[in-house]
Amino acid sequence: MFFLSRARNGTGRATVTEYARHAAPSEEECDKASFRAASTVHTVRVIAPRMSESDWRRAPRRQCCRTKRTRWGSVLEVRIRRCGRGELTTP
Fold this sequence. Notes:
The chain is globular and about 45 Å long. The chain contains two helices and five strands; from the N terminus they run ββαβαββ. The protein has one domain (2-82). Strand 4 (63-69) and strand 5 (75-82) form a beta hairpin. The protein has helices at 36-39, 53-56; strands at residues 2-9, 14-21, 43-49, 63-69, 75-82. The chain is mainly β.
């Protein structure tokens, strides 16, 4: 489970929020091979541009994102962006 740990203004007109993973001391790590990569993520960093007023008036599903792991592997970075032509969002 991840909880908001930090929020700040980023470069330009962006905001950066970070979420830290909480694990109870008695919680065991999942030992399934398919889950191993996910269990190394301890922080999720979300970088989002400030939305224009017209974007706020559009339908709720109006943004896309790109994800990448940092070179250290413990941080998953999510960059929110406008959807490209032909890109779809699904509920």
